[in-house]
Amino acid sequence: MHRRSFLAGMLFIAIHQVVAAAGETLTERALDQLRATPPSVPDAFDFAVVADTRSLSVTEQSETWKQIIQDVNALRPAFILDVGDLILGGSADLLPAQWNEYERVVADLQVPLFPVTGNHDISDAATEKIWLDRVGPTCYAFSYGNSRFIALNSEEVGAGQRLSDDQIAWLKADLESANAKHIFLFLHKPYFVAGWNEPNWTSSWDNVAEAIKGYPVRIVFGGDDHLYRYMGQRDGVHYVISAGGGAEVRHPVDEGGFHHFVLVRVRGDEVTWSVIKPGSILQPDVVTQARVDEVRNVRRNWVGTETIEAPQNAAFDRKVTAFVQNPYEEPFDSVMAWDIPAGWHVEPPEAAYHAKAGDITYLDFRIWADGPEQVRFPVPTLRTTFKAAKHGGPIDVERRLDLVPAYSVRRANGAVAVDGDLVDWVGAEPIPLRYAWEFDITHTDDLSAQCRLLWDENDLYLAVEVTDDEFHQPYAGDVVWSADGIQLFMTGRWEWGLTLTTGGPEVFLYKGVDREWETVNKDVKLAVRRDGKRTTYEAAFPKTVIAPVAWERGSTFTFSIVANDLDPSHPERPRHWAELTPGVGDAVPGSPMAQLELTE
User: Quick one: average pLDDT of 286-290?
Assistant: First the structure.
């Protein structure tokens, strides 16, 4: 399938000053525009980079992207590259209208636009064909001034989480034929991130790193992560994630979570760039990997509490130890204070401490809840300021009590038939999904949900019962989460979507281990039964599918689940959901997860 993309891309390999016949795809139009406006000075020009310009709607482009278009028009670079996730996507039948809207919005751009494939744009052969017909090649190259620009395809069907050998061969051929002072690479998924701290690249990037050795590759741009990040320089190449063009932002601002685009300046031998928010210009080191590593270490590892398991329906009253680790050579003094929600108590509510250099400081608190019903989120949250930071100013920390809801999963008494009838689920205790997003959870006709789990030597079984006054799922593929259905998270490495489409029950794998992501999965059995306002989902996950989870009595793993709801008959209700632990449905980094233990 991807060979067709390479053949289309090969049309541009020999182009050193842009030459292209008039065409109808977005890429061909951009080449026509570029040919009409050659650089007045071949070694002095600007270009812009943006990515993830999509919105959360299948009918609209993001307002941020529209604002960026206006900013680009004001700056007037030679051209702009949109590095993947131009639309929300989904099944092929949903895409024509989305591409129509995208083309309508970008018609306001006054500079050529070069598109690069993203995982929301291409998910299978049918959506790839739409890209080829409407947008252009999935990988291609062109020259402008003294530079070469290479768009790579991170969405090759069947290639896994790396670029295929065929694409690498294509890349090598283009690099060999290019006569350029500077070369720039663009791909949506930043495969270089996984091995950044390794002495050698991981298998996701080692073939690309080897291919570009010896060539004047200045910057590799990636997207997908919905943030800005200058990773640094490696083997003479700068690596940048620029993925803030309009899609939802889930990371803190000081970890790169802000909308932006990048303006790159080529001036002879020199290449520089600026990070631009709507209405402001930022320096390339506004977020560095060194600062992010420090901030994350402080907030995730160096300040916190011991982990406390909270069994279902159990009371809570115990001593809890908090800690502050200071690995640096300078000590500091600070204060730890607690934000205490209703139903919880902390004594003392505040404590001063001295963080010795190169040491860990421990502080003990008594924390208790009024009763078993109050042992839930929100939990007490500690606040402090880490004053010894080396890569920026002091770091403010908010870290909630590390409370882990704990549930037992019983072994099935016999065979479990995956048919949507839970008659054989006797003894499996229901677990309520009691955290609500954008709805009143006391309105149980609108939405309420509970799940149950069982296991045997071959499978993990899941049953979810949802009460909902309106079932609505018009989609299929990777956007099923935006209407009625289930999202399941396991071990922090697996994410699944379970739903009832117009074509029947569908299991969608968003991410996993050693499997192709963002695909319909046929290994998991799923039955969905509708009975009035009740929808019952029953699924069997083979143990081979969710490896490397240990599969024996006493094994534990993290878990959470979301029941999504969209009610078009009630426009006053935004999309909402019920979830087992708060924040997972909105993909908030660091959201709490429950712990499951396999028992007899």
Answer: 92
